[in-house]
Amino acid sequence: MTPFNPKLSATVSPPVMEARRWIEGKVFGADRPLINVSQAAPVEPPPAEMRRAMADVVLHQAEAHLYGPVLGLPDLRSELALNISRHYGGSIQPENIAITSGCNQAFCAAIATLAGPGNEVILPTPWYFNHKMWLEMSGIKAVPLATGGDLVPDPDAAAALISARTRAIVLVTPNNPTGVEYAPEVISAFRDLARKSGIALIIDETYRDFHSQPGAPHELFVDPDWHDTVIHLYSFSKSYRLTGHRVGALVTAPARMAEVEKFLDTVTICPAQIGQHAAHWGLRHLDNWLGLEREKILARASAMRDGFTPLAKQGWHLLGCGAYFAYLQHPYDIPSDDLARALVDQCAILALPGTMFAPKGDLDGARQLRVAFANIDETGITEVQKRLTAFCP
Q1: What integer pLDDT is reported at residue 41 of this predicted model?
Q2: Closest to 33 (Cα-Cα) out of 307, 392, 384
Q3: CA distance 10 to 126
Q4: Nearest to 120 by CA among 172, 171, 164, 155
């Protein structure tokens, strides 16, 4: 057998794929079908009007089937620059934007411009596992920043972790996996810390469009010098149900964009054009539709909070709830990875354990569980809560 890359071999298996293996060969009755709350992705296709626009591109724009610009279609970069400028304030230009094959690739590209083997990146815990995986397989140390009971990272605690090897701090807000939204002053404090320390602040706002508060969630882009420190990541996958088309974005200084272009040209050459045309169409036509989608998600978050009392009486705690996620602390004397498997067999619920979002051996992760409720309606949320209440380890 030829050798394997040791960094890749040491990286954990994809958690969502691992969880799917827990249900292989199992049969769930019609009276209690499986409720899958393991993955935070839309399960419905894009709206019909968008699909018609995509079909028109497929049929009538021959160039959409060829290689496109490495950094994305100019029209989409311009439209997204206008969208970000309106949403956050400040002035974002098309040259600040690269379109990527999903937001995961935007993160990978950002890290590739910042760090290499032996460097360090600070990740608040619970962390988004794909961020940790990319750092690990790249030979970059993920430095965990523990969060308190409110699951909000502390800039002072982060400052104590910065070393000569640190290249960036990563924030995800609204957070995956916890659903927690970071206050503007917390985000600004991390920006100030990063700037003072000469490192980057990477802020992943994949779930921006499902924030509970209207308006700008922070003031980073109001600062005319934002690009000396901030790298912003965005995803069209959740907003427009374009998960299969892989359309994300990275926002940064034009000087860094030259390095981003090297990475993207090597990995994908260019982002797929059909999804880019769809994202451009969505930015121009789907504001009202997206507003209604946001209201649905907020209603599901409210249902999760409102119906939690029976679980709370049994010792469960709702640690975070927002965007697509509820993050729970369970009351049992078993680690959450064992609990998650037991929930499949006893409750027909597929959820991800906190151990998938934390360093190995982390005691908090062993007590926690992520429920991605965005793909089940209020009736489904009530059923999940009912089954959890009836669970007996």
Answers
A1: 81
A2: 384
A3: 20
A4: 164
Strand 120-125 versus strand 35-36 pairing type: unpaired
pLDDT level of residue 261 (50, 70, 90 thresholds): very high
Residue with tokens 């290499």: 116
pLDDT, mean of residues 254-273: 96
Q: Would you tell me how many other CB atoms lie within 10 Å of the CB of residue 58?
A: 13
**pLDDT, tens digit (0-9, with 9 covering 90-100), for 181-219:** 999 999 999 999 999 999 999 999 999 999 999 889 999
DSSP states of 132-195: HHHHHHTT-EEEEEE--TT----HHHHHTT--TTEEEEEEESS-TTT-PPPPHHHHHHHHHHHH
**pLDDT: which is higher, 42 or 222:** 222
Residue 45 per-residue DSSP state: P
Which helix (H) or strand (E) segment is 350 a member of? strand 349-350
For the domain 6-45+289-390, what is the CATH code? 3.90.1150.10
- Name the residue among 120, 202, 170, 177 with its Cα closest to residue 326: 177
Among the four given CATH numbers 3.40.640.10, 3.50.30.20, 3.30.499.10, 2.30.42.10, the one describing domain 66-286: 3.40.640.10
- C-alpha torsion sign, points 76, 78, 83, 88: positive
Model confidence, pTM: 0.95
